[in-house]
Amino acid sequence: MQWETVIGLEIHAQLATKSKIFSGTSTAFGAEPNTQANVVDLGLPGALPVLNAEAVRLAVKFGLALDAKINRRSIFARKNYFYPDLPKGYQISQMDLPIVAQGEVHVVMDDGTQKTVGLTRAHLEEDAGKSLHEDFHGLTGIDLNRAGTPLLEIVSEPDMRSAKEAVAYAKTIHSLVRYLGMCDGNMQEGSFRVDANVSVRPKGQVEFGTRAEVKNVNSFRFLERAINFEVERQIDVLESGRKVVQETRLYDPDRDETRSMRSKEEAHDYRYFPDPDLLPVVLDEAFIESVRMGLPELPQAKKQRFIEQFGLSAYDANFLTSERELADFFESTLKAGGCEAKLCANWVMGDFSAALNKAGLDLAHSPVNAEMLGGLMKRIADNTLSGKLAKDVFEAMWAGEGDADAIIEKKGLKQITDEGAIAAIVDEALAQFPEQVAEFRSGKDKVFGFLVGQVMKAAKGKANPAQLNAVLKQRLES
Amino acid sequence: MLITPNEVMKIAHLARMSVDHDDVERYAKDLSGILGLVEQMNQVDVRGIEPMAHPLDMCQRLRADVVTEVNQRDTLQAHAPAVERGLFLVPKVIE
Amino acid sequence: MSDLHCKTLTELRGILDSKQISAQELAQHFIRRIQAHDSTLNSFISVTEDAGLLAAQRADEKIAAGQAGALTGIPVAHKDIFCTMGVKTSCGSRMLDNFIAPYNASVVERLNQADTVMLGKTNMDEFAMGSTSESSYYGATKNPWDTQAVPGGSSGGSAAAIAAGLTPIATGTDTGGSIRQPAAYCGITGLKPTYGRVSRFGMIAYASSLDQGGPMARSAEDCALLLNVMAGFDARDSTSSEQASEDYTAQLNLDLTGLKIGLPREYFGAGLDVGVAQAIDAAISELRKLGAEVREVSLPNSELAIPAYYVIAPAEASSNLSRFDGVRFGHRCDAPKDLTDLYERSRAEGFGDEVKRRIMIGTYALSSGYYDAYYLKAQRVRRLIADDFQRVLSEVDVIMGPVTPSVAPNLGESLKDPVAMYLSDIYTVPVNLAGLPAISIPVGFAHNRPVGLQVIGKAFAESRLLNIAHRFQQATDWHRQTPPAFK
Fold first, then answer.
1. How many Å apart are CA C251 and CA C244, to the nearest integer?
2. CATH code, A419-477
3. How far apart are the CA of C230 and the nearest CA of chain B, in angstroms?
4. What is the pLDDT of residues B73-93, one digit of tens each?
5. pTM (2 d.p.)
């Protein structure tokens, strides 16, 4: 039987606010346990929530960036369940009227093809605390610092048909939330969490199969592996005549498998109802317009501009706009270098990115900044440096030996461009190979390559190759 | 009875309150009585009427995103049932 | 001066400001009365003598410095539903028997800043769920007029303490009648303000969309003075109204000529005790003499209020009370064997019967498959009831009627049948559903127990209600009666 995979993603993006969604407690990561958990966050008797304006603004920003529907009136609801990391016994979330309603996400796959994924909704809610299972003599410790951190839960339609599509969609959302400055996107620290609803069905069947929700995926690589494992598992279950159970499954990266979360299997009845402590959130046009005005250039628009303004290929433009920081770095380098965009793109995507990867650094910590890389571009463009010498200078820059001009000066790497000097080198070299010169002149074109090599050697790679070539030809043909 | 002893057990579990075996019947009777009272609502046709969640027609006020709270852990944990190294302790949570 | 407990706030202000006695002496007077009488009444859960005397000392310094405000040095008792920093805040429940609140409710904060002197925390039905104050973990409070009778509830401790002269003023909360009904049963004055008028921050929630704190005192004038401090916008409560609060004493003496009173026929039908009806009729006649015009009106959906209330209030309560789980504060069972055991036993041990019943009804009404039939339906009925009031209040200035169908029942009587007890709130519950202000004032006796008149106003018309109550009290002396045993 041919199976088709159906995937929908629920992404929880922690919003980059200073204070919690319903209280004035700090959201800073990494504080001592329960030092950022106050009266409201702990759900003390009598404590009441008041909504953070910035959380609302960021949610609206996200909706506008996707051109999704913004609900002018949205409602907070209580999702009731007991869990030690949920202080009030309910999570304040949104149910019937989320702040962001339907929209579409345009995803570009690695091969350049486009895929449209439906956005079901994006709603505001509060995060829960953390349970720590180690070192408490068989007990669990509860840290509520994270409780009340604002989350935007971004729910997709079940529109993805492979793990690769799911990853491409998740990366698109990841890039977007970072572009918008609304989430730091750190998957390790849990500020960007992806849960996958995975099911399979016989190809051609219209109804969806029973789905499992895969949680605990903290990288895109694991997302792909977790989905692929889950798809295989479900196909095995179905092909052996059993049924897939609707359940939550945890991905275990060490074993590369998903396993059932038995403790959460208990039948849920969340008893959602409108939170009587909070009133309807009403957004007026002026507010929405003010958020729209503040939108940065978004990945798709930036990519299009890179293609049109700089004449870059779709591939290059896609690569360079994948992260806002990288796109900014490229544009700064280009400005500093005043060179052709393609040259700059090649360097940013090539040697520079390779060096970053090799050193395991992110852009912010690169030893070579855009100004410095631009300086190098300038010396390539004005023929001061050949391609080969440029690589040497880049390495020296990376090692902290100064900017391009300083290195060129210090190492005497400056390319020879003086016509007279080049002619002298050529004449001297040709004088050593009279036989080959004669052969060429008698019509044997093949020796030209040999002569170029010898002349280059004599120039020790410092002569401008184009000029060198021109002088050589002129000498041989005269 | 509108609520059976079996349903009492289910509701009690959903609300995380244990109910003594001997009390189940009594609760079933009491809750059924209350539900009987509640069902008088069925006398009236409320189709098309907008549900009223709040007595006043107001909308949510927004708070500026400013940190106003300081660490009060010691005060807030002073009377907590079980605390160690700043964490609230509970029986092992199995995942 | 042995009759200090019979004085109005204005009289006490004069005595304090003229230094006939100090705030400390005044506090001691009330503390001595509590010590003498509260073993009979059980109206206090905690008495905060030391903190009170300290506050009184600070009040004396203010008075000496000529910086006294209207309530400086005035003793007050808080219903034990308001969080008081450093003081046990039990909400009448075993669940919070060990809960020392780490912060002050906004209402408490405001009264502290007004230099009042807290005498203690008053008894109440557990988590404000009840109409008799008998469901308290700390035992039932008795009615000072007849210790065989209940004081009403849930703010029964506050009402009884005022009636017996154990405190001049007290705070209360009203979700379905919990200020007005005990005020009526104990012969004192109690005001439930418009929803959103008094901050709910730090007031332990029963049903968030219905709960409202308010003043309880011997007279409307004293209620106005207390409301002046309690009312006002609070940024910490999202449901707090931004409408500016007023000086509620400013209009107390306005003439009542031309006041249009509506008497809903549904409030005077079968089930209303004849003695109560007579007292109410007499009060209405008195108001006519003061210039009011009376006409009959109709609130046709009134009888749906109790059914809707017993869905909405328990539904909200079932969720509000989920935080009492034995993890961060409050009661935890001994040696839980696992997490579920911790939850189930802590909550079963911590909550009393009535609270459990309401949590279960609320859980049921919200659960999958029943939400539309119960919760959503109740919210629609709520709209009908609110619309009734709006319509009638566009024709008349205020609506009047009895607070309760009968006088205070005997202790123990209501425990037999919870549904019968619920039905006694028939005249008070609709007001909470609509979010309107209403006042209860003493207007006489039936069967030797006090009778209360309810005056319901338009949203934010507290000044008008206090004005009507005050003019009535200028013309009568029902509010000056004191229970013989507590003279």
1. 16
2. 1.10.10.410
3. 19
4. 999 999 899 999 999 999 988
5. 0.91
